[in-house]
Amino acid sequence: MFYRPADGHGLPHNPFNAVVTPRPIGWISTRDAQGRDNLAPYSFFNGVAYTPPQVMFASTGVKDDADGTKDSMLNIRNTGVFCVNIVEYAAREAMNASAKMLPHGTDEFAHAGLEREECSEIACARVKGAPAALECRMTQIVKIEGETNYVCFGEVIGVHLRDDCLVDGMFDVTKYEPLSRLGYRDYTAVREVFSMARPDD
Q1: Whole-model pTM?
Q2: Cα–Cα separations (whole angstroms), residue 71 to 39, 48, 49
Q3: Tens digit of each residue's pLDDT (9 = 90 or more) over 88-136
Q4: Contact yes or no for 35/48 (Cβ under 8 A)
Q5: Contact status, residue 167 vs residue 63, Cβ threshold 8 Å
Q6: Fewest 10 Å CB contacts: which of 11, 39, 122, 158?
Q7: Which residues are bridge partners to 31 per DSSP?
Q8: Does domain 22-189 have CATH number 2.30.110.10?
Q9: Model pLDDT for residues 135-161, shown as the tens digit of each residue
Q10: What residue ranges are annotated as transmembrane (predicted)?
Q11: What are the beta bridge partners of residue 154?
């Protein structure tokens, strides 16, 4: 099968998200200008550089009460900071609950039944007990093709690692089973890993 996205795919559901998988989930916490906390998952998320460490996430939707975007992007525009909370399999239901489209200013931490902790380097909350949390200073927001598509880049200026995930000095993802997004309504969890040496090592 071949199709041009501009012409449509002719399938019951868009296959694009199922092709580009698995995708890590950035559970983005922000705080608005009035001091209200927000939490939402984004599966167009990844790390993009080592030195300095940098991440990105893309917002591809819009809310009527969020100035042409979603709450996370609006809050970051206004405050310049955000935190990426890493999602473990055990938190899948809370992550899903925080994805609900709620009125601007609604506290998704409370809605999803999550405890929070204050970040160390930025004025923002983070998910208490998350395997890792990356405190970020926004470096740029880029408008990309599509009416409501924006990509936010951030420099990681603070890193929290849960102690039980550190094994022999290494961050062991099998200790918490990272949740990843597949296509449609599907997810997966990382439960096994293997190593390969690079050819030039």
Answers
A1: 0.94
A2: 9, 23, 26
A3: 999 999 999 999 999 888 999 999 999 999 999 999 999 999 999 999 9
A4: no
A5: no
A6: 11
A7: 37
A8: yes
A9: 999 999 999 999 999 999 999 999 999
A10: none
A11: 55, 138
In sequence order, the 6+-apart residues with CB closer than 8 A to the CB of 180 are: 21, 22, 23, 24, 25, 187, 188, 189, 190
Distance CA 157, CA 8 (A): 42
Peptide bond into 12 cis (omega under 30): no
What are the pLDDT digits (tens) for 157-191?
A: 999 999 999 999 999 999 999 999 999 999 999 99
Q: What is the pLDDT of residues 51-93, one digit of tens each?
A: 999 999 999 988 787 777 889 999 999 999 999 999 999 999 9
Enumerate the domain spans of the chain: 22-189
